[in-house]
Amino acid sequence: MRIKGIGPIGALLMMGLLAGCNPQDAKNLGQDTATLAKDTTQALGSATLASKVNTVLALRKGVDMSGLHIDAQDGTVTIGGHVRNSEEKKRVLDTVDGIRGVDKIVSKDLRVQP
Q: What is the per-residue pLDDT across 53-84, written as a single tens digit (0 to 9) for each?
């Protein structure tokens, strides 16, 4: 038995749990396990994208990461915090826009320091 998203150990544990369940409980447990695996995969993907954006920006000349906050969720990257000037803001947005896996950028909380 192979269930996408969980490893062989998870499948063995699930099979052990199913042995003592009635058919409806087994079905519910299977659905819950599949949902958990999907949610975990999405969370890992979002964390990976946020990490990639942070790394690329940290390596980008002319970008000071100390005032930035990056969050990612399903291909949408939210950038908050502050930058030194409008050129740096444009550099940040252009850089993030060029990163593979970024589908949308939300920057309403990204502001230029006074």
A: 999 999 999 999 999 999 999 899 999 999 99
Domain region containing 68: 8-112
- How far apart CA 110 and CA 17 sit, in angstroms, is 49
Overall domain count for the chain: 1
Full 3-state SS string of 17-59:
HHHCCCHHHHHHHHHHHHHHHHHHHHHHHHHHHHHHHHHHHHH
Q: What is the CATH number of the domain that holds 43?
A: 3.30.1340.30
Q: Would you say residue 23 lies in a domain? A: yes
Would the pTM count as exceeding 0.90? no
- Strand 104-112 with 68-73, pairing: unpaired
